[in-house]
């Protein structure tokens, strides 16, 4: 267990364990995510990265271990409660409201709107603070001008950006991004990199990534998962030439090729 | 002493009923689990099984009818599946509604062919009349029903446990990718399962007819308990269906002794109780059909 | 086997007229203009036919009886038309399938009244259907003949000024049976009660007459609707060792009960009595399984004045029907319709108030049975005689329908409930909205 | 979008208001009344089916039970008209709320299965409690008492045309309220839930609570419609609670295009009731035609009439939609309902 001297962690896990049927996906995973830093979780397919996210966000319950948010135990909280605490996530498999326009997608994610969730009378468009906040987010992720296009009619790259925009709209205390770059061409990749870079200033971010260059250039802290255990963590530089990681990765590369 | 005799009779009735329900429920669940289609026509197909045997038995004999009627019903099932097919991968409501429409249409067909009145069906001669066991007497036919039902359940168990199809159905065949990965023709498998499931309704209909008599709506008496059995037992679990069937059968059988008129309602109370205790049913795993 | 298609030609013809109007009407409704329909009617003002709505089941528990009922009515109407109609106007039936379902019946009757503008309404088997229909009729002031439902309530608590009840009721059957059963069959009675309104009424009446004749009740069992499995009930009966089983069970349950009792040999355990027996329920059983004694109001084999002629014309008209002979049900349908038309003749108008007056207290002499019947003014029950009957042995039967043998009869004054016992509080004629004429 | 009454709705209201004067011959006033009653029921139900994507299949039970609450209150408790009517709505919402507790965590056909089971349970309850419900005789003798409307004075509801406008008032009010609901933040949330319950959850929405609320709400409208239906027929009967009636309301929403438009259910109701009226006079075996029609619509007209019209209006986009759905069905949990939620804007 690495207990960094840096300020109290925003999000922390202690000895997380999760198995599906007989097959153990995560065992004794203890992680700490310091405020205002971008941490990356890397590792070969099936290492348990996404499972880890699902545990953090409450979509799965751990078999053992705890999850702490700002020092408070949230292991038992359902996903929506955690989201309301400010743990916001984006999904690896795009998960947008496809019939909704960009604006609607973001607006419904804004806490101001959520607080009005049981308001049956006011027209949704009239909740001005939500409207403004949504507009701001859309500008921030560079989708200005597309507000009124239905999500399903947008290009994949833009849907990726929207996915992040929706996560951002939740006013995250910590933002979890599951493979934000997956399936992106080089240009949208650049837009995204810049976006993430800007976000990283003043926001705690955890990102699952395959793209090593993306990880190494952006992250302050890297965690390597392999077969459900943390085999290494530390600053990017240290990770780059970590023997086990090499091993694991070359392993996977070979694996991914043949698959 | 009569009281004991009555209790025993009711227990036996409940048992027979339960086995019958289990058969209907399993056929229903095969389709539900594989295609995610609530087959509303299950009940009317059950009824058709009975009516077919009613018309066939005099000519070909009861045993032959027991085989032929389900085959006919299965055939109808296959035809239905051609329509149901078009709803796969769409809102599951469509499959439900399609079979619902089919149920209405087929029920009317029964009215046209056999008339709206009810028929009573006499048990085959070789099991007519009761056993006399000293203090109690019990219908021979019901015993036969129990035997047939058990045999049928065994057959299904074998199909699920000992054949590749079974493996896939249990693995949750809704995931088309995986099935194809296993190199199995999904379309073929689906129609097979649909045919099988409906044929089971047919068999149940044939063997139930002498006990329940026939009327165009008799299917409802069978399919609603089946729904409950599935909810109680848990979707996708063979033993769940058997267990659920027996529970529902026994409970309604025994309640017949205490509160005759409430006997139908009791099974719903049972369902509610089970749901409160285990929202997914007794043996149901977390299913893709829920959040 | 199709019970509704039997008189297709006729059914279709009468059907068609309604259809066209409703089609135009419905189309019109769709388009938002509805005056074509009424305009067509207005055109035919000259000799506007008298429309009679027939509310007969073709679906559900009483599908068979409902159609028997309807055959009687159609015959009566055709005979009237053959004589040149009533008050110079022809009679036109409008049939709706009431599906043995109160709610459906109300909806369809609603349509008959408000859209087809029928002048009178006839037909009912289930008391569940009869009661709401008579309420509906009373609201409009339409005279309604309840031809074949025999629950006590419709002539007591639920009686209406426009409602006339043609079948004998629970009380009458039980009361007529009581003494005979006690004398000839025994006084240890076991009661089966069909668990719905009719069954409960019948059992109440059975108990009343049991008290009168000093019979002893050795047990009662409730038969829930939809019961198909009587093994445990039969067991109870056997262990209670009664002399008589009073089976207050109707419809398909009654048939199933007989089937199983026969199969279990329980028909030998005691004398079975089915206080109220509609012939159509007897037919599917056949002579062997249709064991037991029962009450009925009529059968075509009765050798009484008019019975032969009525039977002949009925057989001629309905040769193709599932039950090609008149029975207690179709006879009631026939008599009710015939008497309605006669009452209109007597009244000399179709206005409901006058027709009601012409009906109340009227004595019907040609009932095809031994004694005349009377339309009792205080509860609108048709006071009539009742036969106690049993099924013939196969050897005694001349044909498939010749199943019933009358063993005794009870005169109307003995069979009918006294006025003092009546719980009927009827609206006055004046309170009844004027209709027709 | 007009916040209160958008144009198409205004047109609808005007047409409905005009009908009795055109359909002056009695028979159709009653049909018209029934249409508006079912429209209230169907619009409320579509909140569940079309907007939240919850295929409830036992809703007839709630439509029907209202009548018994109303009848019982009028006959044995308070008498009068308004209190019984309110009792109908509240009683139904109460039962709906209880059932909701069981079904709110479910979706897709598992949701259907449970709603079916509970629906049938209530249906049987009617026959078991026949002391109160009158069993298969129905609870008859319910009265349409006159109502005193401030300004208009006393209205005799026994008169069919007066009653038509009585129902009309409720129809207009319900439609406006529902319109507000689907365009409110709440409406946004339930439509979001239909599109991706997981995402909605990840955004901090306690989705089961919302599903419970919609369920109870739609039961409220079912209760109102059911109460009016009971008054229309002077009695409460079990038949509206049967599975078939539950199926009917689903079909109504579907034919009209409840998935595609706010007005879908209304159109569906009109088509359905008029069709039933015609079919049932055409043949003794109309149920056959009706069943086949049912199957046909599922196969060839799944988005309903208005859906078809919309498709015709923008074919290309529809094409995309198809593609998007095809893509989606691969990765979304199958419980979810593809097919767009109807837009608030109709």
Topology:
The complex is a heterotetramer of chains A (259), B (291), C (437) and D (346).
Chain A: E1 11-20, E2 23-33, E3 38-42, H1 49-57, E4 64-69, E5 72-73, H2 79-85, E6 87-90, H3 102-107, H4 111-115, H5 128-140, H6 156-169, E7 174-178, H7 186-200, E8 204-208, H8 212-218, E9 221-226, E10 229-234, H9 236-240, H10 243-258
Parallel strand pairs in A: 3-8, 3-9, 6-7, 7-8
Antiparallel strand pairs in A: 1-2, 1-4, 4-5, 9-10
Chain C: H1 8-31, H2 36-43, E1 50-56, H3 63-82, E2 91-97, H4 102-116, E3 120-122, H5 127-140, E4 143-146, E5 163-165, H6 170-184, E6 188-194, H7 197-213, E7 216-223, H8 231-240, E8 244-248, H9 251-263, E9 271-274, H10 279-282, H11 286-289, E10 293-296, H12 307-317, H13 328-347, H14 352-359, E11 363-364, E12 373-375, E13 382-383, E14 386-391, E15 404-410, H15 412-415
Chain D: H1 7-22, H2 27-51, H3 60-77, H4 82-103, H5 108-128, H6 130-133, E1 139-140, E2 147-149, E3 153-155, H7 160-183, H8 185-195, H9 197-202, H10 207-232, E4 235-236, H11 243-256, H12 264-282, H13 286-300, H14 304-313, H15 315-331
Antiparallel strand pairs in D: 1-4, 2-3
Relevant CATH superfamily of the largest domain in chain A: P-loop containing nucleotide triphosphate hydrolases
Mean pLDDT of chain A: 88
Indicate the CATH class of the largest domain in chain A: Alpha Beta
State the share of residues found in helices of chain D, binned by percent. Answer: over 70%
Q: In words, what does this structure look like?
A:
The complex is a heterotetramer of chains A (259), B (291), C (437) and D (346). Chain B has 291 residues and is an all-alpha fold. Chain B contains eleven helices and two strands. Chain B has helices spanning 2-35, 42-60, 62-84, 92-114, 140-162, 164-172, 176-181, 186-212, 218-233, 238-258, 263-277, and strands at 130-133, 136-139. Chain B has a two-stranded antiparallel ribbon. Helices cover 43% and strands 16% of the residues of chain C. Chain C has helices spanning 8-31, 36-43, 63-82, 102-116, 127-140, 170-184, 197-213, 231-240, 251-263, 279-282, 286-289, 307-317, 328-347, 352-359, 412-415; strands spanning 50-56, 91-97, 120-122, 143-146, 163-165, 188-194, 216-223, 244-248, 271-274, 293-296, 363-364, 373-375, 382-383, 386-391, 404-410. In chain C, the strands form three sheets. Chain C has a seven-stranded mixed sheet with strand order 7-6-8-9-10-14-15, sandwiched between helices. Chain D has 346 residues and is mostly helical. In chain D, 72% of the residues lie in helices and 3% in strands. Chain D has helices at 7-22, 27-51, 60-77, 82-103, 108-128, 130-133, 160-183, 185-195, 197-202, 207-232, 243-256, 264-282, 286-300, 304-313, 315-331, and strands at 139-140, 147-149, 153-155, 235-236. Chain D is globular, with a radius of gyration of 20 Å. The model of chain D is unreliable at 315-339 (pLDDT under 50). Chains B and D meet through α4, α9 and α11 of B and α5, α11 and α13 of D.
């Amino acid at each position: 267990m690495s207990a960094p001297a840096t300020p109290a962690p925003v999000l922390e896990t202690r000895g997380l364990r999760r198995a599906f049927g007989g097959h153990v996906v995560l065992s004794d995973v203890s992680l700490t995510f310091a405020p205002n830093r971008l941490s990356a979780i890397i590792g070969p397919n099936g290492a348990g990265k996404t499972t880890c996210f699902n545990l953090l966000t409450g979509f799965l319950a751990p078999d053992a271990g705890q999850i702490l948010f700002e020092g408070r135990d949230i292991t038992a909280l359902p996903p929506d409660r955690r989201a309301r605490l400010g743990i916001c996530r984006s999904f690896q498999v795009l998960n947008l409201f496809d019939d909704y326009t960009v604006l609607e997608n973001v607006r419904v994610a804004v806490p101001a709107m959520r607080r009005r969730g049981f308001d049956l009378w006011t027209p949704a468009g009239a909740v001005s603070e939500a409207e403004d906040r949504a507009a701001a987010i859309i500008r921030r992720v560079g989708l200005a001008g597309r507000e009124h296009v239905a999500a399903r009619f947008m290009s994949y790259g833009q849907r990726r950006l929207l996915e992040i925009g929706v996560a951002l709209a939740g006013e995250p205390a910590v933002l979890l991004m599951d493979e934000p770059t997956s399936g992106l061409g080089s240009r949208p990749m650049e837009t995204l990199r810049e976006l993430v870079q800007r976000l990283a200033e003043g926001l705690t971010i955890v990102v699952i990534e395959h793209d090593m260059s993306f990880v190494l250039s952006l992250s302050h802290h890297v965690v390597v998962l392999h077969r459900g255990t943390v085999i290494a963590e530390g600053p990017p530089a240290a990770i780059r030439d970590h023997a086990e990681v090499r091993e694991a990765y070359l392993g996977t590369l070979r694996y991914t090729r043949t698959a | 002493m009569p009281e004991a005799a009555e209790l025993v009779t009711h227990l036996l009735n409940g048992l027979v009923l339960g086995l019958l329900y289990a058969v209907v429920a399993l056929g229903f669940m095969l389709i539900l689990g594989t295609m995610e289609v609530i087959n509303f026509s299950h009940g009317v197909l059950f009824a058709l099984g009975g009516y077919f045997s009613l018309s066939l038995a005099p000519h070909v004999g009861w045993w032959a009818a027991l085989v032929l009627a389900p085959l006919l019903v299965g055939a109808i099932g296959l035809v239905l599946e051609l329509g149901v097919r078009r709803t796969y991968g769409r809102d599951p409501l469509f499959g439900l509604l399609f079979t619902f429409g089919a149920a209405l249409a087929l029920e009317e067909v029964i009215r046209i062919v056999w008339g709206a009145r009810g028929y009573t069906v006499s048990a085959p001669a070789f099991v007519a009349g009761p056993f006399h066991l000293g203090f109690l007497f019990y219908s021979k036919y019901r015993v036969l029903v129990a035997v047939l039902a058990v045999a049928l359940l065994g057959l299904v168990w074998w199909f699920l446990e000992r054949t590749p199809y079974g493996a896939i159905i249990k693995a949750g065949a809704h995931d088309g990718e995986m099935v194809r990965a296993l190199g199995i023709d999904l379309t073929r498998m689906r129609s097979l399962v649909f045919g099988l499931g409906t044929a089971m309704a047919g068999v149940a209909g044939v063997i139930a007819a002498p006990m329940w008599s026939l009327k165009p709506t008799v299917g409802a008496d069978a399919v609603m308990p089946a729904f409950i059995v599935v909810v109680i037992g848990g979707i996708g679990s063979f033993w769940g269906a058997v267990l659920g069937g027996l529970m529902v059968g026994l409970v309604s059988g025994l309640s017949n002794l205490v509160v005759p008129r409430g006997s139908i309602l009791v099974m719903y109370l049972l369902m509610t109780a089970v749901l409160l205790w285990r929202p997914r049913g007794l043996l149901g795993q977390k299913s893709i059909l829920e959040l | 086997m199709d019970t509704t298609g039997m008189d297709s030609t006729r059914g279709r013809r009468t059907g068609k007229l309604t259809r066209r109007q409703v089609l135009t009407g419905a189309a019109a409704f769709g388009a938002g203009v509805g005056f074509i329909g009424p305009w067509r009617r207005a055109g035919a003002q000259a000799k506007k036919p008298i429309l009679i709505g027939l509310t007969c089941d073709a679906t559900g528990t009483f599908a068979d009886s409902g159609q028997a009922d309807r055959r009687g009515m159609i015959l009566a109407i055709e005979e009237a038309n053959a004589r040149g109609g009533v008050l110079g106007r022809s009679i036109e039936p409008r049939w709706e399938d009431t599906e043995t379902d109160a709610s459906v019946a109300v909806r369809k009757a609603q349509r008959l009244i408000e859209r087809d503008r029928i002048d009178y309404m006839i037909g009912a088997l289930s008391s569940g259907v009869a009661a709401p229909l008579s309420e509906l009729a009373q609201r409009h002031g339409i005279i309604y003949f309840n031809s074949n439902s025999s629950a006590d309530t419709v002539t007591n608590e639920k009686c209406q000024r426009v409602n006339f009840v043609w079948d004998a009721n629970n009380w009458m059957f039980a009361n007529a049976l009581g003494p005979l059963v006690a004398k000839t069959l025994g006084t240890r009675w076991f009661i089966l009660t069909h668990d719905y309104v009719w069954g409960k009424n019948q059992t109440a009446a059975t108990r009343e007459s049991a008290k009168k004749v000093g019979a002893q009740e050795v047990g009662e069992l409730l038969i829930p609707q939809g019961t198909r499995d009587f093994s445990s009930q039969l067991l109870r009966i056997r262990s209670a060792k009664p002399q008589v089983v009073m089976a207050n069970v109707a419809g398909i349950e009654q048939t199933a009960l007989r089937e199983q009792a026969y199969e279990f040999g329980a028909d030998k355990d005691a004398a079975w009595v089915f206080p109220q027996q509609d012939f159509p329920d007897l037919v599917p059983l056949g002579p062997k399984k249709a064991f037991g004694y029962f009450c009925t109001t009529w059968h075509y084999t009765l050798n009484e004045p008019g019975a032969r002629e009525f039977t002949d014309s009925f057989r001629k008209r309905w040769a193709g029907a599932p039950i090609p002979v008149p029975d207690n049900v179709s006879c009631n349908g026939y008599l009710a319709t015939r008497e309605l038309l006669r009452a209109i003749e007597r009244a000399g108008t179709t206005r409901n108030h006058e027709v009601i007056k012409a009906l109340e207290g009227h004595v019907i002499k040609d009932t095809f049975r031994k004694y005349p019947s009377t339309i009792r003014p205080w509860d609108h029950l048709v006071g009539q005689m009742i036969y106690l009957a049993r099924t013939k042995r196969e050897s005694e039967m001349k044909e498939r329908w010749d199943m019933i043998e009358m063993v005794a009869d009870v005169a109307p004054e003995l069979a009918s409930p006294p006025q003092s016992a009546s719980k009927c509080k009827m609206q006055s004629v004046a309170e009844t909205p004027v209709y027709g004429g | 979008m007009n916040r209160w009454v958008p144009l198409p709705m205004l047109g609808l209201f005007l047409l409905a208001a005009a009908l009795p004067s055109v359909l002056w011959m009695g028979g159709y006033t009653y049909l018209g009344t029934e249409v508006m009653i079912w429209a209230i029921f169907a619009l409320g139900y579509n909140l569940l089916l079309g907007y939240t994507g919850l295929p409830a299949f036992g809703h007839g039970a709630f439509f029907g039970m209202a009548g018994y609450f109303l009848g019982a209150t009028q006959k044995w408790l308070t008498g009068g008209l308004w209190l019984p009517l309110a009792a109908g709505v509240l009683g139904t919402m109460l039962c709906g709320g209880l059932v909701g507790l069981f079904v709110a965590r479910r979706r897709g056909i598992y949701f259907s299965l449970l709603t079916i089971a509970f629906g049938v349970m209530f249906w049987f309850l009617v026959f078991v409690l026949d002391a109160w419900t009158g069993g298969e005789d129905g609870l008859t003798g319910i009265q349409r008492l006159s109502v005193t409307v401030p300004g208009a004075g006393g209205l005799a509801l026994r008169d069919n045309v007066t009653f038509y406008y009585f129902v009309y008032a409720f129809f207009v009010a319900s439609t406006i309220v529902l319109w507000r609901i689907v365009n409110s933040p709440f409406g946004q949330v339930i439509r979001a839930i239909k599109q991706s319950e997981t995402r909605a959850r990840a955004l901090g929405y306690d989705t089961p609570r919302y599903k419970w609320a919609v369920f109870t709400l739609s039961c409220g409208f079912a209760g109102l419609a059911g109460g009016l239906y009971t008054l229309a027929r002077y009695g409460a009967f079990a038949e509206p609670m049967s599975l078939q009636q539950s199926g009917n309301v689903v079909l109504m929403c579907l034919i009209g295009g409840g998935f595609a438009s706010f007005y879908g259910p209304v159109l569906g109701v009109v088509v359905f009731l008029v069709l039933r009226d015609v079919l049932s006079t055409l043949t003794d075996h109309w149920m056959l035609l009706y069943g086949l029609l049912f199957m046909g619509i599922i196969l060839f007209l799944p988005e309903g009439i208005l859906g078809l019209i919309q498709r015709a209006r923008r074919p290309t986009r529809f094409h995309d939609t198809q593609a998007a759905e095809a893509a989606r069905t691969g990765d979304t949990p199958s419980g979810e309902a593809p097919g767009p939620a109807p837009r608030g804007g109709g």
